[in-house]
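To the wet lab folks,

You asked to see what we're planning to order before we commit. Fair enough. Below is the target structure as tokens, and below that is the sequence we designed to fit it. If anything looks off to you, flag it before the synthesis order goes out.
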């Protein structure tokens, strides 16, 4: 008989929708390859949920949400006060995976409750694991750490966390991790390198939809810092967000502007960034927006790197992580891949679910 695993999904935005469609599309493959059947116990958005959705009906649910309608207004949708209500009394926790594709810290109590009752969890949402360190400890306490996956919190579906965990499993000592964790900032850096002005390249990224609706959400470096914090905590650093030195790509006086004013005043920064680019170029270096995790500290900001390093050669929106370890020696282990996109992020979540189903199956 096939193993049956129930899914509860928080968040039906870009990533959550791709997760549902990929689950439905892969159902036959999951059965043939893993003898595994996923069923959808519940899907929730910020104030409602739908229960027991057949996999062949996910498209209708996704279309409903894409039409900007709430899940509570779906045919058998119900209001939901809190995500916690959905996991309070799980009927079959040891066969349940809770997926967090929301973008809020308010799912933390529900995720912890689910884990405590024996369910497995995976998340694309960075906020739970980059919130207070005490939450990190709760999520990763042994033995339930085996029922936790979070590949898509860092670098979308590209396997940065998996590689990191394999190095840890092999007892290799990780001395430094250096990476670029923002497709948007990669795009900006490549444009600068080609000689474009800072204002021009940021405005282009904004028009192409590469930035968040407020580009400062990318340019502040906070999102990169969250990802770096998750990787740093994974290798044992006991740090909080406030411990991270972050260099934003705009001055503090630009914080109070609205988006239009902000974009309009970017030209004031052109000379400063052109100068940094030329200084780097004169030393055969290029500018990259880098997170560095080393000696129990994290720094996030602009770095001038040799064009001959893996990150120096990186172009466009791709992300890269270099792991400097005892065993790998001077040549880092390098992982490169897309760092954003609903489909890629969802693929990381699905792969996590397959792994977690295996863990649940072998749990006593
Ligand atoms: N997009 C990417 O490329 C990418 C890559 C890596 C990681 N991520 C992360 O993946 C997550 C999802 O991204 P996204 O682009 O899909 O975001 P999104 O389009 O903004 O969707 C977020 C969803 O979360 C729901 N939500 C909010 N509060 C909730 C709650 N308390 N309980 C349940 N659902 C709740 C929202 O519901 P309403 O519709 O009711 O507001 C919405 O459906 C984010 O944390 C993001 O940082 C995204």
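Sequence we intend to order:
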């Amino acid at each position: 008989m096939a193993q049956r695993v129930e899914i509860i999904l928080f968040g039906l935005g870009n990533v959550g929708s791709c997760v549902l469609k990929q689950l439905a599309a892969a159902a036959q493959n999951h059965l043939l390859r893993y003898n595994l059947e996923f069923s959808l116990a519940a899907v929730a958005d910020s104030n409602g949920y739908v229960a027991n959705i057949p996999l062949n009906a996910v498209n209708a649910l996704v279309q409903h949400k894409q039409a900007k309608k709430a899940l509570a207004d779906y045919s058998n949708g119900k209001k939901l006060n809190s995500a916690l209500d959905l996991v309070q009394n799980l009927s079959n926790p040891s066969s349940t995976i809770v997926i967090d594709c929301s973008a809020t810290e308010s799912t933390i109590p529900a995720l912890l409750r689910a884990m405590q009752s024996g369910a497995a969890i995976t998340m694309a949402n960075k906020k739970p694991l980059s919130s207070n360190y005490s939450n990190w400890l709760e999520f990763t306490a042994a033995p339930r750490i085996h029922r936790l996956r979070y590949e898509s919190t860092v670098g979308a579906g590209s396997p940065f966390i998996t590689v990191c965990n394999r190095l840890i499993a092999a007892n290799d000592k990780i001395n430094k991790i250096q990476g670029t964790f923002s497709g948007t900032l990669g795009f900006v850096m490549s444009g600068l390198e080609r000689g474009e002005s800072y204002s021009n390249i940021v405005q282009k990224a904004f028009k192409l939809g590469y930035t968040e609706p407020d580009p400062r959400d990318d340019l502040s470096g906070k999102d990169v810092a969250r990802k770096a914090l998750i990787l740093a905590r994974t290798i044992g650093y006991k740090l909080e967000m406030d411990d991270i030195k972050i260099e934003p790509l705009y001055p503090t006086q630009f914080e109070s502007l609205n988006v239009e004013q902000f974009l309009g005043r970017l030209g004031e920064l052109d000379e400063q960034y052109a100068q940094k680019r030329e200084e780097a170029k004169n030393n055969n270096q290029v500018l990259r927006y880098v997170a560095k995790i080393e000696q129990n500290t994290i720094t996030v900001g602009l770095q001038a790197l040799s064009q001959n390093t893996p990150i120096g050669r990186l172009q466009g929106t791709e992300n890269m992580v270099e792991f400097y370890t005892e065993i790998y020696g001077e040549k880092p282990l390098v992982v490169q891949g897309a760092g954003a996109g609903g489909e890629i992020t969802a693929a990381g979540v699905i792969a996590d679910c397959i792994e977690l189903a295996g863990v649940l199956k072998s749990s006593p």
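Structural context that might help your review: Residues 342-362 form the longest helix (21 residues). The chain has a mean pLDDT of 96.

Thanks,
Computational group
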